[in-house]
């Protein structure tokens, strides 16, 4: 588990605060010949992001002291990176995320729910993006609080929001809830995985309120299908 800076997260929140018009699910009526949409597979998404056109000006570390080897890659519709997964247990104090279970616990996240409370890492699937720096500025690519991501691990695809900001030189972190949904050990002390996680964040697409996970999944599935089709 990497150490996070509250001061850094607070400063980054202002830089990454959502400003775009929120994306909301749209209801459609299927005609008699309409076919149900098929969920995209992990294999299809991994094939789509097999090649990297780097959009970062440098590379990130997976952990403090590790070599900087991870670029942020980009396409017309998304950015992505392939990294480890450290466990973020910050935000609301819950049974599994608190000062007793996590030695680096912080009661704050960079972004807040619609009721003004910080996010719940135990309940809400979210990912962590690095603070803006000379390496890469997420905002320049339409990535802000509430942006929607598809996270791939082995044969699983799960959808999450951008919910917190981490150190400017490290990448590869997600909430307790994201890890649990993917089958990654979610314990903040000894959990996570050293490699094999792909984070795909869709440009200029976010959900509001940020805690509406059902909307995140509905929109995320549509964005992932369009991403594969090149639409």
**Uncertain regions: pLDDT < 50 for 5+ in a row?**
5-11, 18-35
Tell me how many strands there are. Answer: 7
Structural class by sheet pairing and helices: alpha/beta
The number of helical elements comes to 4
The CATH topology is what? Answer: Barwin-like endoglucanases
CATH evolutionary superfamily = RlpA-like domain
CATH architecture title: Beta Barrel
> Main beta sheet, described?
7 strands, mixed
How far is it from the N-terminal to the C-terminal residue, by CA? Answer: 37 Å
Fraction in beta strands: 15-25%
Q: Quick check: average pLDDT?
A: 89
Using only C-alpha atoms, the radius of gyration works out to: 17 Å
Q: What's the domain count?
A: 1
GO molecular function: chitosanase activity
Signal peptide: 1-23
Keywords: Carbohydrate metabolism, Glycosidase, Hydrolase, Polysaccharide degradation, Secreted, Signal
Subcellular location: Secreted
Structure explained in plain terms:
This protein is α/β, with parallel strands linked by helices and 231 residues long. It has one domain: Barwin-like endoglucanases (Beta Barrel), CATH 2.40.40.10. The protein has four helices and seven strands; from the N terminus they run ααββββββαβα. β4 and β5 form a beta hairpin.
Summarize the SSE layout with pairings.
Blueprint: H1 6-16, H2 42-48, E1 73-74, E2 78-88, E3 126-130, E4 147-153, E5 156-166, E6 173-175, H3 176-182, E7 193-206, H4 213-229
Parallel strand pairs: 2-6, 3-5
Antiparallel strand pairs: 1-2, 2-7, 4-5, 4-7
